[in-house]
Design a protein that fits this description.
The chain is α/β, with parallel strands linked by helices and 840 residues long. It contains 28 helices and 26 strands. It has a seven-stranded mixed β-sheet with strand order 20-21-19-18-22-25-26. Strands 1-5-6-7-8 form a five-stranded mixed beta barrel. A five-stranded parallel β-sheet has the order 10-11-14-9-15, sandwiched between helices. The C terminus is likely disordered. Bound molecules: adenosine-5'-diphosphate.
């Protein structure tokens, strides 16, 4: 226990403690919270993942005349033996430091990033004479009294504690000086008394300081023992020993008691169910018996604070009226008729039944189509708080269910954290991107989520951290997803799917005019009096700068335009110090012409400089000036002008996409090479297409011997994105026929459909998104399977006016529609037709 003689460095980095004293031979836990102490830990002690064995100086803060930097002049050199980090609710380091020897600070040589002092070692150094060798009569008496006291103390303490049993053995072996330091760690003493012990360097003065403290403590213990409250005191002693010499000043103790009292009151007011309250009170009494610097103390305290914060029985009053809900949904969103209708039905049924049982609504659609914003509207209309739980990439079930409290850095799961944040037990929880849930080695978060959503279980959901049932039955869960494919089937089973498809160009224009522009204008501190974007400019932004099913990029681009205009208006306002409406820009330009050029914003605003009056109307030219050259050029005409190219339509979780499929022929072994990261289903489609072409080309008058056609290479851009699905079948056949016949496919045609070996075209999914994508790309004819006829009704009239939908049953019909003037059949009788030679 007692460290052997040692020489410490002359220069020591300092760790400053405010309410404790480290004595040689004992260990204390020191919470690190000030910036200088944190700097010291990060740069000298816990470097990377390692604990370096640097000797540090532990000094106590003491505002007293003569003290340099408000520090007690004598400190203790110590070694850090353990660092614990708690991450929740905020990162806190706690160091376990063992004292080596006293030192006196001679000067501070560095203050930042942490203080460093020059020191003189005071005890325990090499060559120090053994204090037991030359003692006079007075001192001898003192030593005898002290040892006797130490033994009495040990007998009063709980020997089951390791430190007490160890001390019992060591009491006659350790030099008196060191024993004195260790014993003082076991007695209750104020900060000032401990500093006195620290200051007592020689044996006689040390014993003179310690003896009264020791006797006082023994007396106290004996009285308590007589009172029969030994059990309590034992606990007190335990706490004292675990604190191990950490002399907490009386005022800090009082503060702590006040805090705990407040926590107790909060727990009483939290409206917990009986079982939870019982557990909370049990934990609270444990907390009261713990030393404040044990790591378990802060863990228990965090736990109790969470229990006190949870909305066990508080719900907000709901304001549900169907007519208000209808009005709210309409005000917040343009279009989305089907979605709104379904939400109103759901709310109406709920209101009539008076509970939340029933499927969970899940909005499925590409990004930016308003799924989150619809869910937020539901919360607003019901007057419930809204909380979003993002599930994208969550692959650990503990994220949902919480971590066991015994782990360092343990925290509750997202559901409990959300409830703590919203402070009501009946919020609307949005489970965002439920299709992106992962599953890793840490258990299946989907299964945990199922428990949260299942009405048969969720009235007593047990988070592993809280370890008490919490009633989730009042929470209204709503989910969003981009695609149904990756939602775990049991979860899918719990949900009612509402598809939110992409928007047409017209719908985007309306959303832009009615919602996005007013919102962005307001967000950028502008008003409609100063600034508007005309319809043509909006169309230009939509078609040249965005290619998406939703409106998120559109909103961002409108934001960029607003920012650029805001800069200009703000600049003019500063220069003129007049309101924009009153500004005479012509004069203004003339006056500050020279300076204005230098202060132009980075984006060249071209016309904006010459504007004469407000409101500033952003036209197409200005859009180009602000947003730069167009990102997307409409039309695919240039790309479909050679044989062996056709436009297919694909469905992706982010909406429909046009896919330009290309093929080329080269000398080499006959065969088909496919590139573009195709999945197995797509590769099989390609093989079916090739077989069909082999068997049928002749009837279309194509004179190509496929066995001698060489190598055919077919590519599906974009090559970096993996693709799969059967719907490219018709496109692959069309590309092959075009390549072999040397005829170009019509540039305004797109197609989708699965094929069979006999050339039948089967229906496929995502027709609405695909036709919208074709429309966005400026294509005017879309070939789809007859089986998809019913899906056409979902398309807005404005799109159907501009796109001709051709329904097909067979590959033959596809080819007739895909090529200019069709592909007439040639009934070639072939070489084997019997011929009759005239003998005449
Ligand atoms: P998602 O959750 O589907 O990815 P968001 O709900 O975040 O999309 O929507 C993106 C932005 O587009 C939001 O600002 C939203 O208000 C707006 N928005 C989307 N659809 C509409 C609509 N139909 N009417 C008005 N605004 C809309």
């Amino acid at each position: 226990m007692a460290p052997s003689a040692i020489t410490i460095p002359r220069k020591l980095p300092l760790l400053i403690v405010s309410d404790g004293v480290l004595l040689p031979g004992s260990s204390i836990r020191i919470p690190v919270s000030t910036s200088k102490n944190i700097n010291l830990v990060r740069s000298r002690i816990a470097t990377g993942n390692q604990l370096s064995n640097t000797v540090i100086g532990v000094v106590t803060k003491e505002e007293r005349e003569g003290n340099v930097y408000g520090l007690h002049p004598i400190g203790t050199a110590g070694m850090v033996v353990q660092v614990t980090v708690t991450n929740w609710p905020r990162p806190v380091y706690t160091l376990l430091v063992t004292g080596i020897c006293r030192f006196r600070m001679t000067s501070i040589v560095q203050e930042y990033p942490y203080p460093v002092a020059m020191v003189t070692q005071l005890d325990n150094h090499k060559g120090e004479m053994d204090d037991d060798t030359h003692i006079d009569k007075d001192l001898e008496d003192l030593v005898i009294k002290f040892k006797e006291g130490a033994r009495r103390l040990i007998n009063l303490l709980d020997v089951s504690l390791p430190i007490v049993s160890k001390l019992k053995v060591l009491v006659d072996k350790v030099p008196n000086k060191q024993l004195a330091d260790v014993v003082v760690g076991l007695v209750k003493a104020s900060l000032a008394e401990r500093l006195q012990v620290l200051d007592a360097v020689d044996l006689a003065s040390r014993l003179r300081v310690i003896l009264p403290l020791l006797l006082r403590h023994i007396q106290r213990l004996e009285v308590l023992k007589e009172d029969g409250s030994k059990e309590n005191e034992k606990n007190n002693l335990k706490m004292h020993i675990c604190g191990n010499g950490h002399g907490v000043g009386m005022s800090a103790e009082d503060e702590e008691t006040d805090d705990i009292q407040e926590l107790e009151n909060q727990l009483k007011d939290a409206g917990m169910p009986q079982e939870a309250y019982r557990v909370a009170m049990k934990e609270l009494s444990r907390l009261k018996r713990m030393a404040a610097h044990m790591p378990e103390y802060s863990m228990t305290r965090n736990y109790l604070e969470l229990l006190a914060d949870l909305p066990w029985s508080y719900s907000v009053k709901e304001t549900c009226s169907i007519s208000k809900a209808r009005a709210d949904l309409d005000t917040d969103h343009y279009g989305l008729e089907k979605v709104k209708r379904r939400i109103l039905e759901y709310l109406a049924v709920r209101q009539l039944r008076g509970d939340l049982r029933g499927p969970i609504l899940c909005f499925v659609g590409p990004p930016g189509v308003g799924k989150t914003s619809v869910a937020r509207s539901i919360a607003n209309t019901l007057g419930r708080p809204f909380h979003r739980i993002s599930l994208g990439g969550v692959s650990d079930q503990h994220d949902i269910r919480g971590h066991r409290r015994t782990y360092i850095g343990a925290m509750p799961g997202r559901v409990i954290q959300g409830l703590r944040e919203v402070q009501a037990k009946n919020p609307v929880f949005l489970l965002d991107e439920i299709d992106k849930l992962g599953s890793g080695i840490q258990g299946d978060p989907g299964a945990a989520l199922l428990e949260v959503l299942d009405p048969a279980q969720n009235f007593s959901f047990i988070d592993t951290y809280v370890n008490l049932p919490f009633d989730l039955s009042q929470v209204l869960f709503v989910a969003t997803a981009n695609s149904l494919r990756s939602i775990p089937p049991p979860l899918l089973d719990r949900m009612e799917i509402i598809h939110v498809p992409g928007y047409t160009q017209e719908e985007k224009v309306m959303i832009g005019q009615l919602h996005l522009i007013p919102k962005q204008v307001k967000d950028h501190g502008l008003t409609s009096d100063t600034f508007t974007i005309c319809k043509e400019s909006l169309v230009c932004i939509i078609s040249e700068y965005t290619r998406e099913a939703g409106v998120r990029t559109l909103e961002r681009k409108i934001g960029a335009v607003c920012r650029a205009v805001a800069v200009q208006i703000a600049e003019n306002m500063v220069e003129d110090d007049v309101k924009p409406q009153e500004m005479d820009i012509e004069n203004n330009n003339a006056e500050v012409e020279g300076e204005e050029k230098e202060e132009l914003p980075e984006i060249s605003l071209g016309q904006l400089q010459d504007h004469q009056e407000f409101p500033i109307v952003v036209d197409e030219k200005m859009v180009h000036d602000i947003l730069g050259p167009p990102i997307f050029q409409s039309g695919l005409a240039g790309r479909v002008s050679v044989p062996g190219v056709a436009v297919g339509l694909a469905w992706t979780p982010v909406g429909g996409e046009v896919l330009v499929v290309e093929a080329s022929r080269s000398d080499g072994d006959p065969g088909l090479i496919l590139t573009g990261q195709l999945g197995s289903v797509m590769q099989e489609s390609a093989k079916i297409a090739l077989s069909w072409v082999r068997q049928n080309v002749k009837q279309f008058g194509i004179d190509a011997d496929l066995s001698k056609a060489g190598e055919i290479h077919m590519h599906f851009p974009v090559g970096a994105i993996s693709k799969d699905g059967p719907s490219a079948g018709v496109t692959i056949i069309t590309v092959l026929v075009s390549l072999l016949s040397g005829r170009c496919v019509r540039p305004d045609v797109a197609m989708t459909g699965e094929i069979t070996l006999n050339g039948i075209v089967l229906p496929v999914g995502g027709i609405k998104e695909k036709i919208l994508a074709a429309h966005r790309a400026g294509l005017t004819i879309v070939i789809i399977p007859v089986g998809n006829k019913k899906d056409i009704s979902e398309l807005p009239k404005s799109v159907l006016d501009e796109v001709e939908v051709v329904l097909v049953n067979t590959v033959d019909e596809v080819l007739q529609a895909a090529f200019q003037d069709g592909f007439p059949h040639v009934y070639d009788l072939g070489d084997d037709t019997p011929t009759v030679t005239s003998k005449l």
